[in-house]
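Session log. Operator J.P. requested a structure for one protein chain; no other inputs attached. Running the standard single-chain path with token output.
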Amino acid sequence: MTEVLQLLVSGLATGCVYGLVALGFVLIYKAAEVVNFAQGDLLMLGAFLALTFISTLELGFWLGTLCAVLAMAVVGWLLDAVVIRQVIGQPQFSTVMLTIGIGMVLRSVASIAWGPDTRSLATPFSTGMVSVAGVPVSSTYLSIIGGTVLLCVLLFAFFRYTRVGVAMQAASQNQLAAYFMGMPVKTLLSAIWALAAAVSTIAGVLVAPVSLIDPNMGHIALRALAGAVLGGFGSIPGALVGGAIVGIAELFAAAWVDEKLRDIVPHVILLLVLVLRPQGLFGAVGRKKV
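Structure written below.
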């Protein structure tokens, strides 16, 4: 039971990070029907900016994290307003290739600015163990889970009770109707990109003590993509649940079967979902009349 509980907490913490990255996928896809393959690289860039603000500029953990989140929100806004908006009306494949290109550029920028070496980020929760039901559990994993839950509550309140959040939902559901209602659709889409970048930055800060920071840490998005598809690519709760399931599954597979399976499990889950239930756990089957 001790091993099971420790694996469960570790897997859930890892899955929470996947869920946050998957949430960025879903937010952008719901708004613009674009799969942003640069989402993981936004996480990486946000983690490096947090490292700079916290360690290099010595702003402290909380203020440095806030500065990184705000800076990445600006980056996300500019990506949509300056880059993505230029290919509106082009085949969807063009947008996919553009986001892949953006990811490559971000990795190159990070390598030039911070170097290829792996960095560590100290957080107030990086050390120590906490007893849960008599079982020692890393405080880092508990902080990841707690941070994810808090962020989800804040996002729920934002989308439910604020005018901007409600307008974002309206624009993501029907852009044309939102436009005719007088909503600034372009501004709202840029705001959604900014929100997705900010969420990924928080995920990067949460996972940094575990996976460390390097220019290639954005590859975590491939696992998060499996979580987004599993939960249903248009479902925000599904992204979080799907990410948690993928994280728990890969940890148990690595511990009880073979460590090599950790890199394979997310892709196997992705293939199985696409074959058996393409709409995911919480997604709906879409039909168009022609």
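Operator note: DSSP finds eleven helices and two strands in the chain.
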